[in-house]
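Forwarding the complex inputs:
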Amino acid sequence: MTSGIETQELSKKFTNGVTALSEISIGIAQGEFIALVGRSGSGKSTLMNILGGLDTPTTGSVFINRKEVDYKNRKNLIDIRRTQVGFVFQQFNLIPSLNALENVAYPLLFNYTRKEERNDRAFELLKMVGLGERADHLPHQMSGGEQQRVAIARAMVANSSIILADEPTGNLDSKTSAEIYALMRKVNKEKNVTFLIVTHERELASYCDRIIELRDGKVIA
Amino acid sequence: MIAKEMDILRVSARQLLTKRLRVALTVLGIAIGVAAVIGIVALSDGIRYQAIETIKAQSDLTMIEVHPKTTDGVTQLITDTKVASLQATPHVLAVAPAFMDSYSTKKQTFLQVVAVRSDEIDKVLNLKYSAGRPFASGAPEVVFGADLKDKLQRNEGIRIGDVFTALVRDYDENGMPVDRQVPLTVSGALGDRDDQFDRYVLIDMTTASRIRGEQKGYDTVFIRVDDPDAVFSVVDEINAQGLSSQGSFEQIKAVNQFMDAILIVFMIFAVFALFVGGLMITTTMITSVYERTREIGITMAIGASESDVIRLVLYECLLIGIIGGIVGDILGYLFTVVLNTAGKPFIIDRMGPEFSAILGNEIAKISPEMAVAGMVIAVVFSLGAGLYPAVKATHLNPVEAIRGMI
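Prediction (whole assembly, two chains):
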């Protein structure tokens, strides 16, 4: 077993009887840049949510950096979200009342990190995503692409080794989408961060190291 | 740890700033509740204070009259040992044991006679004479109270220095009344005191014992207390010794009981106002939690625990409570100012000019303790009102919250 993500016969059945995931066993090595593709309802988002500790599987196991995730232990799930996994969403999902710097530093607020350190780290990351000059801008004062850059910086701020991105370019034009992919790739190369990116766009998926395709809750490629 | 709390508090403050008008109205709601409580307590305290000051000014508050208690029809007279114990009570300056008797004049004017020792009663009452002198020890002499002196002089022509015949009633073996005639000299008359001694006859205890026979104890002890504020503690001590006490302090007790009853009734209305303010906070926070469903979901997704989310919501309520408390204190203060300036003439106009003196300078009195209490009430109500929305926020499913499915 290597660092990164591994699932063993992971299944998820909803209370309404729908099976979202069916015995999925995948391995993603540390530093891989993976695209997760599939039609709507194929189970992509459910898989992402389970890997990020936001949802729980019905059966099966998940290992993050060789450690099995204990889905019955809420503290363990919070700890995974705080320190190991970062999220990037399609809607950017920044906190509207906080500026770019504060949004990036926000996860560290719950981590007992001192304010100066939080701000230093957040500013470094903002510079890395090319927004050093816009640190004090509120989300509504930034374009979609800029907001997504802030969201990527936020996902990295806790030194997470894995970033789960759910349709990160779904709300962006093709030029900005390409820029965001380039940025994620840069982070992946420079920081050896594992990326698992849910996308519909085959062209963008082709930038990735590997493509995992889901259909009806099963891995088909 | 504290730094983290301050940082979360700052985030909560930012949230409040994004919905200024709604927060301002909510703050006003809780502030009006606090102001109502402060205004009512200030008004009641002001009236209570004025009434008590009037009682203090117009009556002899530090004089207590002690009597033995009657149980099952038996009255145990107060012994010298009990008198000594009363004298030893803290804050008691002087005691004067006495026994009461009743004589009459030949024209059947009732005389309430108080048998005392001259030096002891003088220490308690600080007697002033309008005419004549105190009775001599062991002599058949009496001193009249101011009103009695006027009455007997007017109706029966008895003057200072005169010898008059007092009728002392006894009962023979058949139970029939027998009046004895006792000649007594009026040695002096007391000045006006505005109390019961204006109507009493003072007589030396030795003389009274000679007339009525030796007494086995005292039915009254007059006590002088050194400080008006210590009266109630002395009364408690007296009651603890199985005796009962009377005096002007009872008026203060009655005023306090009356004002407490009024305060409770008015407080019910004030608590309604506070309750409405609390409901406004609950509504504001529930709306806020619903509006920020996605935001709360994200906050949980990036590592906030349930307790972090609860704190984020409750700190908003805390801030609303603090601002509401401050605004409530200010409104409460303004209310008392209005009462003391515009309200006072209105009340005097309605109740008559004689109330102008009784009402003094302030009819509503606000104290720093009230302001602190107002703040505490606002904060407690606000936090209480925020509990439900805070707990509700933690029950959000982050996945559904982020997708905007809730």
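Residues 2-58+253-403 of chain B form one domain.
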